Amino acid sequence: MQIYCQQLLQLLQLASPLLPVGGYSYSEGLESLILQGKIGDRSTLKTWIDRELQAGAIGIETAVMARSYQACCQLNSAGLNYWNNWLTAARETEELRLQSWQMGGSLIKLAIEITPEIKALSESIEHSCHYAIAFGITAQFWQIDRRAAILAYLHSWTSNQVSVGIKSIPLGQTAGQQILWQLQHSIELRSQTILDLADEDLYACSWGSTLASMQHETLYSRLFRS
Predict the structure, then answer these.
(1) d(CA 80, CA 120)
(2) Over the stretch 186-221, which tens digit does the pLDDT of each residue have?
């Protein structure tokens, strides 16, 4: 029971919105869609997030996070570098790539401050560390269950997207919590399919969010960095 409680507390800390990695400052193109009028209420926001969960890049990113977790279990620095480079190649816009690098670097720095043992393996990564890779390394070193880490990663991303909608549409906090509640089943289903994905199945239909991310820099005014 004590071990379970410790793992649960560590999971809550890793997935906390208070974690200083800067995720709250990115919309991943969602702000563009809101300002263009394509998303403007609770229903359209929920539909967009749900579709991204099922077919978008977040599912593939989470699958790579799970692979970095496994590579960390095996002290496989070559595997970590492979998947880190794979994510760099898979990022379709500079904004999304820079976001992932910034958040990954911030998480690794924080994790080393808390558990210095992470430093040796994290230093084996040859290029800038993506957030998914940093999350997988940290979850494994903190002895968080891999399935729980997958759920937490998906839920954290979903919460951030809901937060963007609350600020930009705008929506009330209650509406945001209703969306999160309604998306729980989608998060659970996606976590199950992610565990079964083979390497050759890592692809996504993300052109909508990619175009929205590319258009973000041309907005007249912005609350978010992407």
Answers:
(1) 13
(2) 999 999 999 889 889 888 777 677 777 777 777 656
Mean pLDDT across the chain? 90
Q: Domains of the chain: which residue ranges?
A: 28-198
Task: Say if CB 197 and CB 76 are below 8 A apart.
Answer: no
14 residue type, one letter:
L
Q: How far is Cα 135 from Cα 119, in angstroms, rounded to an integer?
A: 14
Yes or no: say if 104 and 129 are a contact pair by the CB < 8 Å rule. yes
- Model confidence, pTM: 0.94
Q: Average of pLDDT values for 72-78?
A: 92
Closest by Cα among 18, 2, 36 to 219: 36
In this structure, are residues 217 and 84 in contact, taking their beta carbons and an 8 Å threshold? no
| Region for 100 from its dihedrals, namely left if φ exceeds 0, alpha if ψ lies in -120 to 50, beta otherwise | alpha
* Phi, psi for residue 194 in degrees, rounded to 5: -60, -40
- What is the CA 2 to chain-centroid distance, rounded? 29
Residue 77 token pair: 């620095």
- Homologous superfamily (CATH) of 28-198 is Urease accessory protein UreF (1.10.4190.10)
